[in-house]
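User: Predict the structure for this protein chain, please.
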Amino acid sequence: MLTVPKAAAVIGRSPETIRRWIRAGRLRSTKVGTQHMIDQDDLAEFIRTTREQVGESPVRYEVVESAFDEPLFPELRKRITANPEVLVGKAAVRGTRISVELVLELFAAGWTEEEVLDNYPTITRDDLRACFLYAYERIEGERILPFDSMP
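Assistant: Here is the predicted structure, written as structure tokens:
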């Protein structure tokens, strides 16, 4: 069973979008206390049918539960924000116009941590860690398999 934020991370949507789908009856969930919990099979079925409806190639997502029950590094999470008025809503380091995408691109291009910090003095090592945590949480537990490999 997945929480709404975990399901959102798996499919790359916001938790509010997941809640809207639940309220509209498009995505099945079970209410446990005050939280909606989503079965992994229900999420996979929702993804498959949604992709078929919009004409995309069907894909199966397999969700693997994290070894951690509690959120990872909550203090780092606070360092990444998304505001529609800043960088068109891209995830960015809090208080800057430096997107997570840019930080990842710099490292992919071969920049070192010191080069990034020297060239962007408004960010810190913890901000860099927060960018990597943000990226990790977006892909954590996601496995994409071609449709024809589904059992």
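The beta strands are 2-3, 30-32, 35-38, 59-63, 80-83, 86-93, 142-146.
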